[in-house]
Amino acid sequence: MFSHTSQHSELHKTILRGDEQPTLQRCDDCCSLYHCPFCGPEMFKPTIKSKCVKHLQGHRRRAIRHKEFFIFKCHLNCRTAPHFHCVSCTSTFMRKDGFLKHLAMCESKKTKITVVELKSEGISPEQDLRMTVSETGSVEETLVSEERKGLISEEALKMRRRKTNFENHLCSKKAACEKMVSHGPSESEIPNQESTGEGGIMVEQERTDDPSQSPRDEEDPPEVNPSVTEPTVSHSAASPHPTEADVAIQTLVNEMFSGHSPVESTVPQRSRADAQDLCPFCGLMMHRKNLQVHLRRKHPDHVSNQEKSAPVQMKIPKQQRLPVWQQQKIAMESEIRDVFRHCMRFPVPISASVIADELLDTANKKRCITVLTRWSQCDLERGVKLQFSKTWTLLCKHDTVEHVLPSGTSSQIENELLSCQSPSGTLQAVIRAEAGHQYLEVWGQNGLEKSLDLTALNKHGRVYEDAQFGCLAWSPCEKKLLYVAEKKRVEPSVHSSFGSANEDGGLVLLEEQDKNVYVEDWGEGLVGKSSPVLCVADLNKATVIIYAGVPPHISPAQALWAPNGRGVVFVGLWNEPFRLGLKFCSNRRSALYYLDMKGNCECLSSDGMSVSSPRMSPDSCWIVYLQGEVFGPHHQCLSMMLYDMKNRSSSVLVDVIRRAEKGQFAGIYESLPSHCWSADSERVFFSSACENKKAVFSVDRTTGKIIQVCGLDVLRLDDFGSVQLLTIQKDLMVLSCSSPNQPPCLRAGFLSKVNRAEDMQLSNLGGADVYEGFDWQPMLITPPSQEENHQFSGLNFGAILLKPYSPPERRKTPLVVNIHGGPHAHFAADWNATAAALTKLGFAVLMVNYRGSTGFGQDSIESLLGNVGSQDVKDVQRAVLCALQNETTLDPDRVVVMGGSHGGFLACHLIGQYPDFYRACAARNPVINAATLLGTSDIVDWRYSSVGLQYAFDRLPTSQSLISMLDKSPIIHAPQIRAPVLLMLGGRDRRVSPHQGLELYRALKSRNTPVSICSIHLGDMTAAILNQSTHQVIGEEETDEANHDMVIFLGGHDGQMPVGFWPGLNPYLFFDIL
After folding, report:
1. Rounded to an integer, what is the distance from CA 658 to the centroid of its chain?
2. What sign for the dihedral angle of Cα 698, 699, 701, 702?
3. Which long-range contacts (CB under 8 A, 24 or more apart) does 514-520 make?
4. Known catalytic residue at 995
5. What is this structure's pTM?
6. Residue 305: how many CB atoms within 10 A of its CB?
7. 989 an active-site residue?
8. Cross-strand partners of 533
9. Looking at residue 178, what is its pLDDT?
10. Is there a contact between 431 and 439 (Cβ–Cβ < 8 Å)?
11. Would you give the end-to-end CA distance of the chain in angstroms?
């Protein structure tokens, strides 16, 4: 009966919806590079993927945001000049201002339905007049003759009759109302309001919900008196401003008979609050007509099919609705949780190994290689961190990966502590913990082949699975397994002699344990691990042997089999005169040892250094290991040593890098992969920090030449911010690649010849192929002359800035300053779920690598000794000022700071030294008073080294040393702190006692000066004591909750959201900032 204008439904390629990203594909027609999807080749030349991505980021910054669409400027051949395409029609505009006006007009330009009844002498009663509205708004008359009535359905005729009758009735009502208003009601009209007038309008019948049940459906349309109908039509046509009654009639008729609501109406509408409902799941307030769509999209698992079809049933009475600010708070909390869960759901690879290599075609050198990878993923619903495995099959020819077969379904790894593949690849050993027992399992091609209950054998204590001590190694004959476990102690009441047989059948006496005697351990993250022993499981005899001959002042760790299985090579850590914290500390005295089967122990390295990561070459002729200084910086630049098994001599393969050139190799700062040798035993591969990124390097065993593997253009790894080496076996290298806006993915490829690096090719195995919608950029900063360290002048430091593409509502973006702990640690340009979530929530994030961070040479690390609290504080502030100066979209009035450990130490310094600059501070396990921390920390040596004092085991604190520690602590700036502070403290932290945070808590609560009372709100000063948490490791559920409360707190004090949104923290929350 009515015709409507058609909508322009197909979107142009320059119009994207929501978070949709432009598609980039390698060109197969004219080149092998990447084209911009919005520009022609004459406007933007094809280039590599990373440059094309940066170009698209510029498009994103200049795009127009219209509702859920991003409209990019089109540089294609649609027109001769750059232009914009309309979302609703086919129009194009070159000027942005004109295009914005067109969008507003085009959106409001919709079909208007006009219903008019006309009487004409030239048209017989048997003819109908149908009126339609065209796109231009002109009225088209179409006469329907008696012959064409058969073409109109019965339903249409019924609809027309009901509409005519109802409209005539409404017109009479309107005329009666006008008469009553002008002359007043007569006496005869008052008692009988349902009587008909002269117009012949019938008494109104009671309508039903179903129009088909109307008593007039089967009747002919009654004749309408022209005295009523004609004045109504003429009046409406003559008056340019219709009355409310005219508009009401027209609105009601259109809604009932056309199914469409009118676009223009002058009738006052109900208030927006009356037409809104509260979502029962997330508390979001929205219009009732949008509630069903919201439930279907956001809560599909919580709403049944019946509830989805009738969301009105879940309507909350108006008197029971929450206040608007509480509804906004619930909605914002839900959004924060969703964003963090989205960013934390991406799995991260932790290891890789080649488990099979089968030769398919000897003549063509075709083979099939199976790669097993292990991943870690957060399950925030259960609050746990899961591990799973994925397997890829590679079809190779002449050391080139030709095809990568799909990986298939992932398999969860449960209760697994350690695992190791046998040299032949046919067996896999697993140490598993279940129901309080530890089991050693051997798996083969036919399933489980051997299982030993290590707890029931009662030869030792718990097996060590940590990175500092833990190991699991197959002997060359594949009949024995080597691992490290806690020494078994017997109760003093047992008078009989207990022992464990060694390799020669002798007994190793077990020590008696007195529970009242204090037993040292290795500090934070290694609680309960005190006296490790070397253990060998004989699979044929189903027994466990404890190796004898290790000196009592040595704790064995990181063991591996010597050539031919005739002995064991291990790292020996000094445990005398007492143990210091070992985790994150590469400056503990240790050496490399060889232990034969007869119990003879020999030192292979210098015993006055720190040693770690011994790795045997495939030909069993060489051992490489890392070596550093004792005491001083707890994490430092290490040298790589090469031990010759034949000549029994050590030499330096890679020396300590004092200061590196820009973009060049800057030293070794992390442990070596478990498999790092090339198949010919000529090259060693490793990953290391280099300025603001992490890269893969190789060193030639003969010449000592170092090459950056991931820096080769042919590998196309410049699209990633950081590359991590997982393994290299049989010359197949597996890499983990990621960026701040791209979750990790895997690349694999064969090594090339030494002099043919350009021949190396990498294939994509899998992982997250996702680009998040924000930008990032590295920064290299040179401190000004007044902030120089004159002893180590000319040093640079770095930072990484993450920011949204465009600030919402054209406002400037608030800045979150994130500071790493350590202090000798590093922020790499890799995937960081916390930083990514903050950026997606609308914050810019600045991650600072101040002087003293790893990746910039040993001079940068040593420059911080004695200058904590000043040099590092100035570096962070300088990085913030540089970011605000270079990026005008950042808001200098909305800057907040967060950090953990030494990062929390710096965060508290910043709000004390620059009290008017930062709006809020969130600190996890911060060092507040170094002097009071001296007697409670597991790394007491760092307390002296940080203030520039030399440490020795017998050193006692002096008044001068304590004063120096106090002067460099943020507690002395507590009177100047005015920004709200959020503290998160681990109740079981062995490195930084929770009393450090409580000391600042009391100092701030006791500030009764007017400035402190006005600026420091007692409700904002919350200490979340985490009784079950340590310095770093926590459960995923607590991480999720703390991330949520962290954003609420920071946003509440930087102008993003009201301060009242932060109600206080659950006492068991924690935030892992490292």
Report:
1. 34
2. positive
3. 520/575, 520/578, 520/579
4. no
5. 0.70
6. 7
7. yes
8. 485
9. 47
10. yes
11. 67
